[in-house]
Write a structure and sequence with these properties.
Elements (H helix, E strand, L loop, with lengths): L2 H20 L4 E4 L4 E4 H7 L9 H10 L5 E4 L5 E5 L4 E7 H7 L1 E2 L1
Parallel strand pairs: 2-6
Antiparallel strand pairs: 1-2, 1-5, 3-4, 4-5
């Protein structure tokens, strides 16, 4: 197996493991002033993300809509999803971290 093929397989495996971890716990949207909002509640306010419960759901909906976006993994498993054309800048945090870093609304 060539080095390039090994790298592709490694990246695919890493992505699959990362995304499977994303759905293991309830996700919240972190607000500007240290509050956490249930992601399902936010998805009701943003039609494009309707029904999203996990970061993977958000990615799938953005891809399906043809929206360009970036996902940045921050420390402690926090994720940042940016979709400039839709004026979306989301910071997603797992429920367990909301208790440490923010207050749940």
């Amino acid at each position: 197996m060539k080095a390039g093929e090994k790298m592709k397989k490694f990246l695919l495996l890493t992505t699959v493991l990362f995304l499977s971890n994303c759905s293991a716990e309830q996700w919240y949207l972190m607000g500007r002033h240290g509050s956490c909002y249930d992601l399902t509640g936010f998805s009701k306010m943003e039609p494009l993300l309707s029904g999203s419960k996990t970061p993977r759901d958000i990615e799938n909906k953005l891809k399906k809509a043809g929206v360009k976006y970036t996902v940045t993994k921050l420390p402690n498993g926090i994720l940042q999803i940016n979709a400039p054309s839709k004026d979306l800048g989301l910071i997603l945090i797992q429920k367990s971290l909301c208790h440490e870093f923010a207050s749940i609304q």
